[in-house]
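WARN  no MSA supplied for this record, continuing single-sequence
INFO  ligand: flavin-adenine dinucleotide
INFO  echoing inputs
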Amino acid sequence: MASADKKPTAIVVGAGVGGIATAARLSKAGYSVTVLEKNSFTGGRCSLINHSGYRFDQGPSLLLLPKLFQETFHDLSTSLEAEDVRLLKCDPNYNMWFGDGESFELSSDTSVMKREIEKWEGKDGFERYLAWLAEAHRHYEISVREVLHKNFTSVFNLLRPSFLRHLVALHPFESIYSRAAKYFWTERLRRVFTFGSMYMGMSPFDAPGTYSLLQYTELAEGIWYPVGGFHAVVAALVRICERSGVNIRLDTAVSSVLTSPTGKQVTGVQLSTGEQLSADLVVINADLVYAYNNLFPNSATSYAKTLQKRDGSCSSISFYWSVSQTIPELKTHNIFLADEYRESFDSIFDRQGIPDDPSFYVNVPSRVDSTAAPEGKDAIVVLVPVGHLLNSATSNTEKATSGPGLLPEQDWDSIVSSARKTIISTIEARTGCAPLEPLIIHEELNTPTSWESTFNLDKGSILGLSHSFFNVLAFRPKTKHPSISGVYFVGASTHPGTGVPIVLAGAKITTEQILHDRGIPIPWENQDSRIRDHGVKQGKGTSPLDVLKSREGAVFLSDVGILAMAALVLVLVLAYVNSGLSVTWDWEGKKGWGTGRI
Ligand SMILES: Cc1cc2nc3c(=O)[nH]c(=O)nc-3n(C[C@H](O)[C@H](O)[C@H](O)COP(=O)(O)OP(=O)(O)OC[C@H]3O[C@@H](n4cnc5c(N)ncnc54)[C@H](O)[C@@H]3O)c2cc1C
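INFO  complex generated
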């Protein structure tokens, strides 16, 4: 660790989950850290909206990959429990409501999944589900080990033997839908097991098969919800930051990154007020595409422009409704899929528009956490995925006048009002709940334009850059600036990608890169993991009960056994045919099987 009297200094631009987690880690490693946030609250997309006793999660509501949360707190020498972050398990995971009046319950309870799958695809269907789960398990384990815990600083990292060996098993070149279609033979179940690509802001027909890992973590590890809202995780990290002396300045927008006269070394940042702050290094947590186009000297570089041309994730129209009574038909998480499944994605991702018949997600935080709404009432969030904006409002580059994408000057009032009508009638028709409209006593709203202006998200893409193969790994914008020494990135649009747990994993990767570049020891490097998921350590002292044994003595048919059996059956059939014997059923006498010569 750096000595206390001469602490190196760091500025973090943005108090999103990525910025706050990086600040906490840098502070632990001995940095004097200042976080600068344009808004009056921390958490960025992972923040809350409060209204008269109702509480809504502005962005994330599904806490997945819980081990990555535990790892962050453990590395900071504490735990979720010690920081009073209490996770509630959502049960069921989701209710999926179909247009034909049917529904499907997704659960981490295997007996529920067996019942639900056998209903549509029979016994074989459940076996195929288990095979799909095994594939998704491999996607998950390989990705956590080889992608979420490693940096990709150059394309040569793709040649790492440990990664390359598993590349084919990750199915990065097949879509999540085409992988699911191999295991699920009805269109209904193909939809059930592919809509999750929307967590990455991608169509299931484009998202790499690897991302079945997200639905896997829900089914194998559950969906969780922090008491008090998702922001409780950020609030705990903020408390850790404050305990270690991090200075978090809210309502403080950064207007540019300052460099040495040669432009090769960072020296600090300038605020929108004109104030200048100096630091040894600057970590950018603000959206990376926005930052490259707005915060650097000579921002409109060709690299910055190419970033804006890369595929972005979708945007959303999000409603936050205070409702005057509970709507018991709705569970914590509800999915309403469009009947025209493929078309609903094509209109978002190919044409960047708004589908006439949208798929949408409804979250009722008060169903799992009673603190989210006054007693006997519900807080409801509706997320309707839509295309992103055609232009980047915050960019210095010239505006496109045509092409796919929504326009900021579009008539949002009428778009929102038509989406609202469709959603309310769909919820009522599919769930049979009481008429909703008269129960909504207050509404808050986010649209692509408000996502862009509130958080500086380029084109209002709520999940940052897309996660297609050529936008991830070594192809994703790097965690370190290519030419300005001392500038690093953390957050949804850099490696490893979007989603709160993934961004937390990214905060670890970026901080370790910074410390490695400066020869500073990594405080948590040799810390024992408290997560017991590697099985019992094998060695001399291992209890006989826990010694791992191969399938010694077990009766099973290996591939060789199956081939031998097949050969034996073939020999018997040939012998029978050559013997001239016939074995037939005695139809007339119905006396059973008889033999004779042909
Ligand atoms: C509607 C929605 C639903 C989601 N659902 C889930 C979910 O269920 N589960 C999940 O895990 N993830 C979900 N996500 C994704 C998740 O919220 C994000 O991936 C994650 O929060 C991104 O964190 P971040 O730190 O990268 O960025 P941000 O949260 O965007 O933080 C960046 C911060 O930088 C600030 N900033 C920007 N420009 C400046 C500037 N010039 N000066 C100072 N500050 C600046 C911004 O105000 C912001 O606070 C969802 C996101 C959205 C929008």
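The radius of gyration is 28 Å.
INFO  checksum written, moving to next record
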